[in-house]
Specification:
With about 650 residues, the protein is an alpha/beta fold. The protein has 19 helices and 22 strands. Helices cover about 45% and strands about 20% of the residues. It has a five-stranded mixed beta sheet with strand order 2-4-5-7-6. Strands 15-8-9-17-16 form a five-stranded mixed beta sheet.
């Protein structure tokens, strides 16, 4: 144990034990009670002993209290009552917070990576950095070996064969040695990348807990089944996939699984079922989420789509087309406001993750039988083959599996494609995007591209195909892609950063981001002069907590919205007298006028009733949600289930995208 960090290994063990305790408590509802309790007692006893060794009395006492609660049920003679299960989960949540506090105290200036085992992941990242540095040094040595061989050639002409032969042999030995070491480094890199992967079981545990929480809130009996947790994925991929699937399972319970009486009347088991299976498909992982609920109301989806002008009135819409519209977001058949929102927002979030990771998503539903959502994502984003290009004097990399072909362009054709924003290829007209125009540093100075001729790289970006303009091709390379630091400026076209053989950073571009940028650069008519442009109405955030106000303001402004804040409902009501707002984001529990009353007053005002309001509260009961709906709120978000993408999805639907 390190003297500098005496709790390092305890934190790893405690985190694993607390995760096992949380999962074990959930298993009390589905497995053999005696066996499940026995496992829980073992984990709690181990944690108690380890905590006492390192003098962590709080965790030791919490583990002991858990033991005391479990002992009466160790013989498995009777099930553990739901109130006891809920109390056990509250206690494991408190233990999780204690372990997280230990992590924060150890690294006060560093936010840990999302996902399990951040310390081990950090160690592997350090190893990968060391391998990259070693590669860079040996690349320099390779150049020196080549220099020795060139010197031998010059000596051969000046001094004769013997001296040149000795130098030639030395140069070849150096080159062979460098190549051998680089092969071994590549092997170490591959092993390190595999070690960095984490099991999908960590996400399945979180999904199980989400199903339990929503079912408890909704008063439903729902069983969760998870399979395939042994499959290992990149932690960044797993975290994003898990966040997306949280939307799916919450909505499956809230809007899919019927109340018990309705299920029994339909001839179904009283207890609903939600399952998530994980399977490997080549270099991808497929997460398949099924529920046995009521399925989508396809007629209601069609009516919503018709109302929004997405399908012709009175037309028979194909089921696949309705599913595609649902994936675009904003369509929900839910008739009530809940903290988990309508299915449209959830599927929108899943689609965004699939596009961001270069995966896919599909939805199948059968009215009265249930719904299946499948999310397919790559196993890892750490290593990929890339096409290296030069644009505007900068070296860039594109994922090779997205490259369909490359076409050389004479200077005249390159200029014409850039001016038109379009490129004719294989009988189609594709959006054309000069890469130099979307570099993080902005367009290059005139003449930075060299001769003016170039290359059109035809890319597949999901359902779209575009042509990206570069100055020249530099070959292919294996890339170890790392996410950008949190504070590094980036646009949607940047997927990450890699290090070249000399240790220099190289931008890795995201095909989906490039496709979006290409669509945005196509001519759309005359632009409105800046002086004549009317700024959009701001969003008004109303909360008595400074921390919450600033957090919500930061999220909205980062998404491009204009924001104003009020510390009370009274201040907000004063503000709305003097200016127009696009949306109200309102806390409920405030001194004086509460959020319910604020919403009721604005709904009763003819000048304000069309301004949508979202209630944000720590209250999560069904009664509070119904009261929010009755008051006139357009959405209700529970702080304990707060999800940034869910919030932004609601706001985009209610107030539109930022200008």
């Amino acid at each position: 144990m390190s003297d500098k960090d005496p709790l390092r290994y305890f934190r790893i063990e405690a985190r694993e034990l607390v995760e096992q305790l949380g999962q074990g408590v959930l298993d009390l509802q589905t497995g053999e009670v005696g066996e499940a309790v026995a496992r829980l007692l073992r984990h709690a006893h181990t944690l108690k002993g380890a905590a006492r060794v390192v003098r962590q009395a709080g965790l030791a006492d919490a583990a002991h209290a858990l033991e005391e609660m479990l002992v009466p049920y160790r013989d498995g003679a009777e099930p553990v009552p739901p109130p006891v299960v809920a109390d056990l989960l509250r206690r494991t949540d408190a233990m999780t917070a204690l372990v997280a506090a230990l992590q924060s105290s150890a690294e006060p200036a560093v936010q840990p990576e999302p996902g399990p085992e951040p310390e081990r992941g950090s160690d592997v990242d350090d190893l990968l950095e060391a391998v990259n540095e070693a590669h860079a040094r040996f690349a320099l040595l390779r150049g020196q070996a080549a220099g020795v061989e060139r010197l031998a050639e010059r000596l051969r002409g000046a001094t004769g064969e013997p001296a040149a032969a000795d130098l030639t042999a030395l140069g070849r030995r150096l080159t062979e040695t460098v190549e051998q070491v680089e092969r071994e480094l590549d092997d170490i890199r591959g092993r390190a990348e595999r070690l960095r992967l984490v099991p999908a079981a960590t996400v399945l545990a979180a999904l199980h807990r989400a199903v339990y929480d929503v079912a408890s809130t909704e008063g439903k009996a729902v069983r969760f089944e998870g399979n395939g947790g042994e499959l290992r994925l990149d932690p960044h991929v797993l975290t994003q996939a898990g966040n997306a699937l949280l939307h799916v399972v919450r909505n499956a319970v809230s809007h899919g699984v019927e109340p018990e009486a309705e299920r029994v009347a339909a001839g179904k088991p009283a207890q609903g079922r939600v399952s998530v299976d994980v399977r490997r498909r080549g270099r991808f992982a497929a997460f398949r989420c099924r529920d046995d609920g009521r399925g989508f109301d396809l007629e209601a989806v069609r009516r919503q789509a018709e109302r929004r002008g997405l399908v012709p009135a009175g037309a028979e819409a194909d089921v696949r087309e309705l599913m595609r519209l649902l994936l675009q977001g904003g369509i929900s058949t839910s008739e009530r406001v809940t903290g988990v929102s309508g299915r449209g927002i959830g599927l929108d979030a899943v689609r965004d993750v699939a596009e961001r990771l270069g995966g896919d998503v599909s939805v199948r539903t059968e009215p009265g039988r249930g719904t299946e959502v499948e999310l397919v994502v790559p196993l890892a984003l750490v290593s990929l083959s890339g096409l290296v290009v030069q644009a505007g004097g900068v070296l860039l990399a594109l994922p090779l599996d997205a490259v369909r072909t490359c076409v050389r362009l004479p200077a005249v054709e390159a200029a014409a494609a850039a001016a038109a924003g379009a490129f004719a290829h294989d009988g189609r007209v594709l959006p054309f995007l000069p890469l130099a125009d979307v570099l993080p540093a902005g367009p290059p100075p005139a003449g930075a591209g060299g001769s003016g001729s170039g290359v059109a790289v035809v890319l597949d970006a999901g359902a779209r195909t575009i042509a990206a303009g570069a100055d020249r091709l530099l070959g292919t390379s294996t890339l170890v892609v790392r996410p950008l630091p949190d504070l590094a400026p980036a646009t949607a076209v940047v997927g990450g950063v890699s290090m070249d053989a000399e240790g220099n950073p190289r931008i890795v571009l995201d095909p989906a981001g490039l496709a979006a940028a290409a669509a945005g650069t196509r001519p759309t008519g005359a632009a409105v002069p800046l002086a004549d442009a009317v700024p959009p109405d701001p969003i008004l955030v109303v909360d008595d907590s400074l921390t919450t106000r600033m957090l919500e303001r930061s999220i909205l402004e980062s998404a491009g919205y204009r924001v104003e804040v009020a510390a009370s409902a009274e201040e907000a009501l004063e503000r709305v007298r003097h200016r127009r707002y696009a949306l109200f984001l309102v806390d409920i529990d405030m001194p004086g006028i509460d959020g319910f009353t604020f919403v009721e007053r604005t709904r009763a005002d003819p000048d304000l009733r069309d301004v949508p309001a979202i209630l944000v509260s720590s209250r999560g009961s069904a009664e509070d949600r119904r009261r929010g709906l009755d008051a006139g709120a357009a959405a209700y978000i529970v702080k304990s289930e707060f999800d940034q993408e869910e919030l932004l999805g609601h706001i985009r639907d209610l107030a539109g995208a930022p200008a």
